[in-house]
Amino acid sequence: MKKRTKIVATLGPASSDKKTLRRMVEAGLNVVRLNMSHGTHEEHRRRVELVRSVESELKTPLPILVDLCGPKIRIGKLQKEPLFLHRGDTVILTTGKPQKGKITVNYPNLHKEVKKGEAILLADGAFRLRVKEVRGRDIVCEVLVGGPLTSHKGVNLPHSKLSVPALTEKDREDVKFAVEVGADFIALSFVRTASDVLELKELLKSLNSTVPVIAKIEKPEAVKNVDEILKVADGLMVARGDLGVELPIEKVPVIQKQLIRKANEAGKPVITATQMLKSMVDLPVPTRAEVTDVANAVLDGTDALMLSEETAVGKYPVKVVKTMAKVAREAEKIYPYKRYMELPAQTLQDSLAKSACNLSREVKVKAIIPFTRSGATAIAVAKYRPPVPIYAVTHDRETFRRLNLVWGVEPLLTVPPDTTDKVIAQSVGLAASRGIVKKGDKVIVLAGAPTGVPGTTNLLKVVTVN
Q1: Active site residue 261
Q2: Active-site residue among 5, 10, 104, 274?
Q3: How many distinct structural domains can be found in the chain?
């Protein structure tokens, strides 16, 4: 059986040529990520064309996830760098004009929203400052943890309640670009509440788009509000980078498990991201701890594992995908399949999917074949983690691509059938023509009547291939 956990990889200078991307797909890549924090629209447009070309050549779905920058607060250009900050030093951050001896910050309201005694972290938490006082647009801080600081580093405020918008002007332009080039997913950064996700969905609606939204959980507020966020988002990303800065780092592993579990219960795909095989940016072999981290994320129940700088700028973009795929496949040998049968069924579709998965354990079947237009039936089957393959048959090309993010689902593209009997015949026939099943094999087919209408799955049938 193929690996069931999917791999998302970021394209960048190290992986933006056809030969490398082809080899990454052959090594186990399932979803391509475009990071809008780096690169121009023109560069990303070329990457989209590259992805579609490779998808066509390899005859495999290759969805594109556009990851928005979000309202990331950063310091500006330093007058002299590196700027050495020492413990006990006084340093001034300013939202005003650049001045000698002050560090500019790109968030204009920061001076209004921080309070005396609050922490300000720089460069992913490598530097720690404490606010002593606010004087006009100047924030006077004491250095608690210092070092050599360079320009444009990120700023985190774990204890401050900020009124930054969910979508910046750049994000809005990037969303328009994503819709224009036919992106399959959009990831929203620094989500705090469900209303942040709804704001993006309203923008997409105004653009006549239904692109699924992945909510990135990287702030304490989002962890607290995750149940409400899951009701409106189409999936989650456990973004451990900023999460480990905004929260005590020792809490991240447990929060990861909790977030994955909640996404599993909601039947929404979840991606685990950040520093999974980071040492492979420079080295051909990962650390033992990284391998264990990847395996644990698989066993936690993540739908997908994500590579960032490892494939964007790393020296071994193909090897890192191959390594991650091997680790995932090995971990899946002890996958806790039975645990997922305890998940509740919340809809008729869930109940049928759960019944199909139960049946696959009791009857010797080769596969579960959901016929789906929107992808919802296949996602419902994946929620219960059956031990047999899930071959999702669809006539919708967008669904065909998007399902490649979902745990265990292998999408197959067909032509629209007009009767339920044809749905079953086409689905089984397509699986047989691909060599997936053979004469005499039993499969479970899920379908609906009337055909082609989303949300009408109401049929479960065990079929013997003839």
Answers
A1: no
A2: 274
A3: 3
Statement to judge: residues 224 and 248 lie in one domain: yes
> At 107, which CATH number?
2.40.33.10
**Domain end (from 156, 188, 220):** 156
33 is catalytic: yes
Specify the DSSP class assigned to residue 344.
P
CA distance 447 to 374: 12
Q: Do 123 and 223 reside in the same domain of the chain?
A: no
CATH code where residue 415 lies: 3.40.1380.20
Lowest mean pLDDT among 18-32, 130-144, 153-167, 363-377: 153-167
103 and 177 part of one domain:
no
Same domain, 194 and 234: yes
CA dihedral 77, 242, 214, 298 (to 10 degrees): 140
From 4, 6, 33, 354, the catalytic residue: 33
Note the pLDDT tens digit of each residue in 387-434: 999 999 999 999 999 999 999 999 999 998 878 888 889 889 988 888
Helix (H, G, I), strand (E, B), or coil: what is residue 313? Answer: coil
> Is residue 293 domain-shared with residue 360, that is, in the same domain?
no
CA proximity to 389, closest of 3, 102, 124: 3
Give the number of other CB atoms < 10 A from CB of residue 19.
9
Active-site residue (options: 102, 192, 216, 385): 216
Active-site residue, selected from the candidate residues 23, 46, 74, 422: 74
Show the tokens assigned to 439: 């004469």
Give the pLDDT score at 452.
64
Residue 422 annotated among the catalytic residues of the structure: no
Same domain for 58 and 101, yes or no, is: no
Domain, as residue range, for 90: 83-156
Write the pLDDT tens digit of every residue in 74-92: 999 999 889 999 999 999 9
User: What does the pLDDT look like over 202-222, one tens digit per residue?
Assistant: 999 999 999 999 999 999 999
Provide the phi-psi class of 161: left if phi over 0, else alpha when psi is between -120 and 50, else beta: beta
Q: What is the pLDDT of residues 434-452, one digit of tens each?
A: 888 999 999 999 998 776 6
Q: 274-308 pLDDT, tens per residue?
A: 999 999 999 999 999 999 999 999 999 999 999 99
78 lies in a domain?
A: no
Give catalytic status of residue 274 as yes or no.
Answer: yes
